[in-house]
Amino acid sequence: MELTETHTLPVPQQRAWEALNDTAILKTCIPGCESIEPDGENAYAVALTAAVGPVKARFKGRMQLADIDAPRSYTIQFEGQGGAAGFGKGDARVTLEAAGDDATTLSYTARAQVGGKLAQIGSRLVDGAARKIAAEFFKRFGEQFGGDAEQTASNENDSTATDPPAASADDTAATGDEPQKRKRSWTAWISKS
Question: What is the model's pTM?
Answer without folding.
Answer: 0.73
